Amino acid sequence: QVQLVESGGGLVQAGGSLRVSCAASGFTFNDYAMGWYRQAPGKERELVAGIDINGLTRYADSVKGRFTISRDNAKNTLYLQMNSLKPEDTAVYYCANLSGGSYWASPANWGQGTQVTVAS
After folding, report:
1. Is 89 left (phi over 0), alpha (psi -120 to 50) or beta?
2. pLDDT score for 103
3. What is the per-residue pLDDT across 8-51, written as a single tens digit (0 to 9) for each?
4. Which residues in 16-72 belong to E strands, given as ranges?
5. Cα–Cα distances in Å, from 13 out to 20, 42, 84, 97, 106?
6. Phi/psi zone of residue 26: left (φ > 0), alpha (ψ -120 to 50 degrees), beta?
7. Which 3-state string (H, E, C) describes 4-23?
8. Which of 61, 53, 6, 5 is CA-nearest to residue 33?
9. What's the sign of the alpha-carbon dihedral 91, 95, 100, 106?
10. How does residue 104 score in pLDDT terms, banded at 50, 70 and 90?
11. CA distance 65 to 59
């Protein structure tokens, strides 16, 4: 049974930093690309960043240069380091394992999400 458990969200001032984590279990972590998504109130869920099985990454234009996605295959854990946070980054952040090894693959399973709130 696939489990994805996010942690590390919270309240931060604009310009601050936060790191969210996603502990994965129930599948062979090394074999799947992973992604971070977010959903703000009244908006659709959107891709924030993806990482493939070789560690190659892709980012939404809105977070390029500020966010860094990484994975620790030994710990079955996905990370998202968020710097220079803006109020518009406020959302529930979800991790997902993708349906293949490429970061272009579709999400297969979702975590429960972690709230990130950026105060102005």
Report:
1. alpha
2. 87
3. 999 999 999 999 999 999 999 999 999 999 999 999 999 999 99
4. 18-25, 34-39, 46-51, 57-59, 67-72
5. 16, 22, 9, 30, 32
6. left
7. EEEECCEEEECCCCEEEEEE
8. 53
9. negative
10. confident
11. 9
Two tokens, residue 39: 């959903």
Mean pLDDT of 52-77: 97
- Extract the tokens encoding 120: 């102005």
Residue-wise pLDDT for 80-98, tens only, equals 999 999 999 999 999 999 9
d(CA 18, CA 100): 28
Which residues is 78 bridged to in the sheet? 22, 71
Q: Residue 103: which H helix or E strand, with range?
A: none
CB 83, CB 51: distance < 8 Å: no
